[in-house]
Amino acid sequence: MVVNSMRLDKFISKATELSRKESKKIMHAGEVTVNEQVVKDPGLHVDIVNDEVMWAGEPLSVATGNRYILLHKPEGFECTLKAKEYPIVTELIAVPELGSLRIAGRLDVDTTGALLISDDGGWLHRVTSPKHEHAKVYELTLADAMDSDAQANAVREVAEGILLEGDHEETKPAILEFIDDTHARLTLEQGKYHQVKRMMGYFGNRVTELHRASIGHINLDGLDKGDSRFLTADEVAKF
C-alpha cells in the first residue's frame, strides 16, 4: 500500500459523491482509468496525490486535508445544512463531500457578503469565538433617515454597549460609522442572533439591506456574488 493511499471505489465515491456500489458499476463498465490504464478492481489502492484517476475522460481528485473556503453569499440562500424554504449556500461551492462542511457565522437569507466555510471545527470556533476578537464589518442601509444628532447618539451608545431586548448583557463596544443619513458601517467583535438588525431596531430604525464586507483580515477583494475561493495557508493561519 502506498503513502496517502485509498481504495479506488472509496476514492471515486469521495470525489464524485457516487455510492460505493455505483462506483463499482462505472469501474466494471470500463469507464475508470488510473494512470491511463482501465481499472475494474474496486479494491486497488491508489495514491490520492500522485496517481491520475479519470472517469469518462475527466480527472477526479479528493481533498487531502481540511478545506477553508471564502464565499461571497448572494441573497436567497440559507446558511443551513439542509434546505428548508431556500437553497443552501454549499450548493454554490463545487467541491466533493459538501456534507462535511460547516459555516462560521451564519447570514440571513436576505443578507449578502463574506462567509467562511470549512470542515475544520477547531478553526471555525476560533473564527467565531468573541474571545479571539476577529472583527466583522457590516455595511447597512436603513429604512429611515437619521439626522446628525441621532447619528451622534447612536455612535456614542454603540461604542459604550447597548442592552438589546431579551438579552441580559450589553453588547460589546462596537464602532458605528455613518456614510450618510441612511447608510452606515458597523464593526463588531461578537455575533449575537440578528445582532445588526436588532441594534438598529434599538434606535427605532430598520435595516433594509445588509452586507458583511469582511471577517477579520479576510475581505471579498472583488469576488462576485455566488463565487468562492480557497483561503491561502497564510490567511488560515491568522485566525
Notable characteristics:
6 helices, 239 residues, Alpha-Beta Plaits, Structural Genomics Hypothetical 15.5 Kd Protein In mrcA-pckA Intergenic Region, Chain A, RsuA_PseudoU_synthase, 22% helix, alpha+beta, single chain, 16S rRNA pseudouridine(516) synthase activity, EC 5.4.99.-, 4-stranded antiparallel β-sheet
Question: What does this 3D model show about the protein?
Answer:
- With 239 residues, this protein is of the alpha+beta class.
- 22% of the residues lie in helices and 27% in strands.
- The strands form 3 sheets. Strands 7, 8, 9, 10, 11, 12, 13, 14 and 15 form a 9-stranded mixed β-sheet that branches. A 4-stranded antiparallel β-sheet has the order 3-2-5-6. Strands 1-4 form a two-stranded antiparallel ribbon.
- α1 (8-16) packs across α2.
- It catalyses: uridine(516) in 16S rRNA = pseudouridine(516) in 16S rRNA.
- Responsible for synthesis of pseudouridine from uracil-516 in 16S ribosomal RNA.
